[in-house]
Design a protein that fits this description.
The protein is an alpha+beta fold. It has 4 domains: 1-43, no CATH class; 47-147, Immunoglobulin-like (Sandwich), CATH 2.60.40; 152-256; 263-366, no CATH class. 16% of the residues lie in helices and 40% in strands. The protein has helices at 37-42, 79-89, 144-150, 169-188, 213-227, and strands spanning 6-7, 14-15, 47-48, 53-58, 64-66, 69-71, 91-92, 97-109, 112-123, 126-141, 156-162, 196-202, 205-210, 230-240, 246-256, 263-266, 274-278, 284-287, 293-295, 307-311, 316-323, 328-332, 339-343, 354-360, 363-366. It has a 5-stranded mixed sheet. It is elongated.
């Protein structure tokens, strides 16, 4: 006779009493608790596993589709992804405790991974082991982002131009680098709508088609922060969406400063030429006659009206003949080799044998040693 006084309704054998056979919490009785161990385990599955799992991945960028969105996982292969998908799809019986599992992936082919999973657990004081094999199919598709890129989708255009000049190749390269770095930062932060659709060099400068208006604005500001200049924007109606709402495309025009760091200009204010140091905000530089700092006045705007005289790179080394006094030195004219008296700026080293000089229509002027040009911008 059974200790509990109960018999298995399926086979008639006595059923041992067990505290495990009632569901805790609501007091409801587990229907299977009336079965003996033999009948209970005959139909018991420790693990509920799907027959197959499909993982959708983008064949272009490698993103994985989860739920209702694409997620960048940065995986070199999809084994770890397959393990994660399988772990989320498997269900372990609620009566089991002390459950542990191991998985051994088997790469069948490029698009199929067979997951060998072994589970252990304790049910009714019985240690159980169960093995399941779940095939994982890698379905290669195109994610929404890559589809937009392939289709040439864009919502804004960033145009890089110069103020009364054509930007140099170096400026265009730095502008493009600043844009790509900004977009990459946005991508790393999880913004899958951040991308540059197309970059085109045109005779006037650079055109970049950008995915969103917000991103276009950010790209334009980043370029100005690095190279100086200003931004204006203009909206153009391009179409209507399915709900009849007007859809606009925004053009952000980046106008690089009229002068570049390293250029020598003459503001024609009577105090001599200026070596441009920075074009962020208003123009800043060094006066070649004295070595004093120069800054464009508020009423001049970002830059004064000035003539271009040359660049720091145009300077040529010449002999320092003599130091006449605190304000003048003698140097050899690099073209005629005649001794010339020129202004003595603060940055001139009186002990030097040679100094770099720039000869222009404004005369002969000593320029600072070395490549000290810079725009003062943060990259």
């Amino acid at each position: 006779m059974s200790r509990s006084g109960e018999f298995c309704p399926r086979c008639g054998d006595p059923v041992a009493a067990s505290g495990e056979r009632s569901v805790p919490g609501d007091g409801a009785r587990d229907p299977d608790s009336v079965l003996c161990d033999a009948c209970y385990f005959a139909e018991f599955d420790l693990v509920d596993a799907p027959d197959r799992i499909e993982v959708r991945v983008c064949s272009r960028c490698g993103a994985v589709h989860r739920g209702n969105r694409w997620v960048d996982v940065g995986a070199g292969d999809y084994t770890d992804v397959a393990v994660e998908e399988v772990s989320e799809a498997l269900g372990v019986h609620v009566d089991a405790r002390d459950v542990a599992w191991e998985v051994a992936p088997e790469q069948v082919d490029r698009n199929t991974i067979r997951m060998h999973c072994e589970f252990t657990g304790v049910v009714r004081e019985t240690h159980l082991t169960e093995t399941v094999v779940v095939p994982v199919k890698i379905a290669r598709q195109t994610c929404t982002r890559c589809g937009k890129i392939a289709g040439g989708s864009y919502a804004s255009v960033v145009q890089v131009r110069g103020d009364d000049r054509t930007p140099t190749d170096d400026e265009l390269g730095r502008a493009r680098e600043a844009a790509e770095r900004y977009v990459a930062d946005r991508e790393e932060s999880g913004d899958r709508n951040a991308f540059i659709t197309e970059v085109t060099e045109v005779p006037e400068g650079l055109d970049m088609k950008v995915s969103t208006t917000q991103l276009g604005q950010g790209v334009a500001k980043r370029i100005v922060a690095r190279l100086g200049g200003s931004v204006t924007d203009n909206e153009t109606l391009v179409t209507e969406d399915g709900d009849g709402n007007e859809v606009y495309r925004v053009t952000y025009a980046v106008r690089l400063p009229k002068f570049r760091p390293g250029e020598v200009i003459d503001p024609e204010d009577g105090d001599g030429p200026v070596l441009v140091r920075s074009v962020r905000g208003n123009l800043k530089g060094t006066r070649l006659t004295t070595g004093e700092a120069y800054e464009a006045r508020f009423e001049d705007g970002d830059a004064p009206e000035a003539r271009r005289l040359g660049t720091r790179a145009d300077a040529r080394p010449t002999t320092l003949v003599a130091v006449e006094d605190d304000n003048a030195v003698q140097v050899l004219d690099p073209e005629t080799y005649e001794a010339r008296t020129v202004a003595r700026p603060d940055f001139l080293d009186p002990e030097a044998d040679e100094v770099p000089v720039l000869k222009s229509r404004a005369g002969l002027h000593v320029v600072p040693e070395g490549d000290e040009d810079g725009d003062g911008a943060e990259d």
